[in-house]
């Protein structure tokens, strides 16, 4: 069997189905989408791509099927879904997710059309697989779908370890081989076998620490916010169709931003890491409820009002493009609903482990509202933002 | 400068002082004391010794002094204390700590006499160091003592990473280089600089997960309890002096246990991993308060009573040697009092991070009372123990 | 001091000079140039960039200076040169080196102009450094230049370890901390101290195995050859100036290739890994001397003649663009001239170690002439190439 | 399935047969025999045991069988042989091999009697295995025996990687997953599949570098020589039977050496690393052929003559116990006879790769005759040894 060398899982044997899928443009495209998008502006080694991550997820799915006794066409479908689980991502992964959802009304794991058409569809069918069934697995549907997208999925097992390996931050090093070996089905639920409360806690904690240290680092958040707004402007000021936007790679998007006058400065700033800085960085209890819960249109209105206020106040010109308001949702904890066998019964981790509540509280304590602006306009924008948003200081 | 290769820190440069200290019998003895004593019966790769750990602590102390600008004789004293911090340990480290404290009234970090006499004293003095001052640093006293023994000490930074490396359990991989770089003195307190709440949380979590998965694994606890009781019996039935006992190595103690008729069976069981099994394994809320809080004499009385009850009940002979009652204290969390600079002020991690309470609760949820017995006597001993101790089932 | 997390060296402290240099567009550009260019088509994890490598080289230079007692402005100049040693690289690093040398007559380590102008020059001067002197160090000139570019340079120490980390191939894991500690100056020569013949052999061997397994993998060679020819065609068919070409990033070059009709197909093939295949793959002793030694114009003539012959022979159309002849030079072994102290004298490794000759012979045994073509034209091109080039079969 | 955590292979699933074998005293004994015996006096982290190594070999054998399609009872026998391949070792592994062979005429891989008797025999038979057949596999006999003991065996794959992990020396990190995947049978020969000349070279080189840096380090050689002579004296001066000696553990032997007056000093020296030093350290071409080829009795005669000469010469008393002459054989290169498929034919690596001869020459260049003595007697012993042995200086 063919094999591919991987820096995380070492030697990944590649079945014929996977070899054929890997040759499609849809999967090759993932070579050009970075797993952690703007995080690499903070952790310069974090240049790994969704292509290698997809291979890793395929590998773990293969192991999981083997350990769970899933065989034949069902195992083939799971392997295909694992390999393909990220083909629906837009350029820069999660950073353009909001833009794409608003314009196309489609989430990145809705891949039915993509899998049914083109080379992907042809390859799946030539191996006797129904693209629709594979798409359902990608969306986490059904018994086996839990392996691909669920609180115990192989996607998470791969990315935590891989992101740790490539950033150099040790917190993501979960015990994925133990997790795999502990998987079992109880009726139709994927659960961890007895004696694995700590295994589950370990994963939960890894994710929480990676959130705080890596995924939500303020430099990455700033770059991500800049990228999202530039993407919106690009779509508003050119005839680029959202469908085409969604199928771009990282570098094609960067190229398009460079070529469009309305976004050329943002492109230069992203390329040269000459980013906006924080004008406001406020904790949850300092921010009015209405701001925390603001939807996108309200956020834009805040930005305009802050810009006007700042522009009126000082000698510096401040335009709406100079102000970015960034209100993150609360960090999710899908792992908290992991089910573990305890004393013979299936229980939710959140009911079993007092750590879950502790981590949730820690997540809230780390929450920050950010308002970003060009470095030279920080004083004006900061003062205006505090006033407009009603942030306590 | 001489250097020693280490599997964790790679290349450890060794100064003249350290080279001379390493040649003393007191430090060479640590080659024969395993860092994790009975844990290796669960994690077979965990054969690392207090010798290599001491080298690692020396290395980190050296780095810390350099980053903190501690120089000259004060740095030399810190390096010496780091290298010597474990010379006071008895055979099998923490497993014989209770025995030694009861017989000698001395804790393993009280090393004043040891450092003032013999080759150690001579080496320290020949390098212009006062053994008493070094002993104070080992005991964590004074400003610089915090680096050697305190909630931010280099001892912990080394052992968490080293224990992870050698067990294969990933949870101990803390970000020790970031911790080192974040150390600073505020007045006379060793604290973490601003922006390091998560760094501190990472260490806290690492320790909690290592407690649950490694340090308090039931197989290691059983072997540890067997070893402790055998050590008591050895001291009771031979003329071995406690002072000599405390200076033994792991293998000398095992040899002595083999040679003494009262402990030969325990020695064989430990050597061949033919251990007692769990007759009772009960959660905190199932155990009467009086049992949880029982002191050593009360525990012994429980053991005798359980043995008598079991012996009376059935056809199997049960003697007091067949019953071990093991009531651990609550896991400590020294890291929770770590001080971190937040918004310009020094704060205790426990006041800043909701994680601390979550971990404390998780520690309580993992607490177990153990009663152990030879495999063939489990039914009788289990039933008797539940009755005698009043454990709910 | 600021610090950057690195997946290889962990925690890299960044001095003020380095922080300022890192903010220049010239260094930020290296974020967009992959260290191993087309190798990632074989080893999908190998996406690391010349930016993180430059940081690693800076880190090792800093350590080396400290161990060698190089201080003050001289150390600053070495650190600057280490950080800047790759700013002269064109897009895709070594793969466009030939193109750039032919068009501009300049090698990538001739960076005098680059360092003297723009933001780089300003930063260097503001820190009291002479750009010309730094450029000399980059070129390996002078006593300290050996640390930056020489047979014992920190560049090689970093890339062997980094390439191993990111490809997952273990062969590059040299003992770089021992190498650093063994560096010393004898008169003006940088040498390894006594007892380090095997340390030097280890590096030599690592490089030889990485050559065979990674750097000269046939898939990377094919992609590299395609890229080079496409770059030539791009420069020939557009008004892109060679100076501008040389300052592109990987993705800007790929974008330019996509936009130019003469190279659009090559761009698509590179992006989707739909590469040419091997029509001929011949050992050294099967290839006539004149072919091995052919210069670039002769190679092009061979390609045209092969295309004509193949086109004439069969039903398939074969144009000159369909044929790539790839004759690599013999793999270099700069490490073989490493000087090591043996019995008190400085000796060349090649004179001391019989391994050098063994590795050289192994390198010759691995040498291959490649002729590449689109998959469907392999039979015609292969037959024609063997005839035209006189390759034995 | 039960699983054991390993620091090298992570998660090792343990079949019922293995679980039963692991519970026997014969396998538990390997917990008390260090893999690298006296090497840990140089590399303090190298405390790993033959127990964990045996588990690693079992794991790789399991993988190899699965990849080669070996199933059922034949696979069970291979797994048993892999797990048991080291049970025949004496205390301190290879360091007492000579003593045991001379006294018992038996090599450590002749384990027929051991496997047929006691608990081992009972367990093997209870799982339907013939102890004699398993013993044959341990000795490398038959087609499948090549997997257990041969130039491509899983023993070597494990120990090179494990020794690298625990010493911290990177040279042993071979690509074992690629090796495993490349294994195939051609007729009855175990060979590497096409495209793996470099994979084989990598292993060969790893072993050669580990020989030079780790296995044959002079400090380990000195301690090994001291241990061997002390073992001989122990057997000569007590009624310890060779059969009992051969079944000791490391610490039981050390205890016996301590308790015997004739060896107590050697025991103390080994325990406290207060070793003999080098009085002579001579290259191959400086040593007369007769000395290189001397058998054990001749070596002993040399030692006595050197002691007499030294004793007569000076004021220092020199007794035969003070002189150790150590003439190692040439380092073996079993990997050089590895067979690899090249151009469709099976070829020996030594015929295919010029590296083999280079490594052989490097091995000869590293060969050293050692004469060791207590530090204070070095001058007399050195001078006498050069005279008696005719070593050029």
Automatic annotation (TrEMBL), chains A, B, C, D:
It comes from the Archaea. Pfam families: HD, HD_assoc_2. InterPro entries: dGTPase-like (IPR050135), HD/PDEase_dom (IPR003607), HD_assoc_2 (IPR045509), HD_domain (IPR006674). Residues 50-160 form the HD domain. This is HD domain-containing protein.
């Amino acid at each position: 069997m063919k094999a591919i060398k991987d820096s995380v899982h070492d030697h990944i044997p590649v079945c014929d189905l996977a070899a054929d899928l890997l040759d499609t443009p849809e999967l090759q495209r993932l070579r050009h989408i970075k797993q952690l998008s703007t995080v690499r502006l903070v952790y310069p080694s974090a240049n790994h791509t969704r292509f290698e991550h997809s291979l890793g997820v395929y590998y773990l799915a293969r192991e999981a099927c083997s350990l769970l006794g899933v065989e034949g066409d069902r195992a083939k479908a799971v392997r295909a879904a694992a390999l393909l689980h990220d083909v629906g991502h837009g350029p820069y992964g999660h950073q353009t997710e909001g833009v794409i959802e608003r314009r196309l009304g489609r989430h990145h794991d809705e891949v039915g059309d993509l899998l049914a058409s083109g080379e992907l569809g042809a390859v799946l069918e030539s191996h006797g697989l129904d693209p629709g069934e594979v798409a359902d697995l990608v969306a986490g549907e059904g018994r086996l779908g839990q392996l691909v997208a669920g609180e115990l999925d192989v996607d998470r097992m791969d990315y935590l370890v891989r992101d740790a390996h490539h950033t150099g931050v040790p917190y993501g090093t979960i015990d994925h081989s133990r997790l795999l070996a502990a998987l079992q089905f109880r009726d139709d639920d994927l659960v961890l076998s007895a004696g694995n409360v700590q295994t589950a806690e370990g994963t939960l904690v890894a994710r929480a620490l990676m959130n705080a240290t890596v995924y939500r680092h303020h430099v990455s958040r700033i770059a991500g916010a800049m990228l999202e707004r530039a993407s919106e402007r690009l779509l508003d000021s050119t005839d680029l169709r959202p469908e085409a936007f969604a199928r771009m790679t990282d570098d094609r998007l960067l190229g398009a931003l460079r070529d469009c006058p309305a976004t050329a400065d943002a492109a230069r700033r992203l390329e040269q890491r000459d980013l906006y800085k924080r004008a406001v960085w406020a904790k949850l209890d300092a921010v009015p409820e209405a701001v925390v819960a603001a939807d996108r249109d309200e956020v834009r209105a805040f930005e305009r009002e802050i810009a006007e206020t700042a522009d009126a106040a000082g000698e510096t010109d401040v335009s709406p493009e100079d102000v970015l308001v960034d209100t993150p949702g609360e960090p999710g904890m899908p792992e908290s609903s992991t089910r573990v066998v305890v004393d013979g019964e299936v229980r939710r981790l959140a009911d079993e482990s007092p750590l879950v509540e502790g981590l949730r509280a820690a997540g809230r304590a780390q929450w920050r509202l950010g308002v970003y602006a060009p470095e030279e306009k920080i004083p004006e924008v900061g003062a205006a933002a505090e006033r407009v948003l009603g942030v306590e200081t």
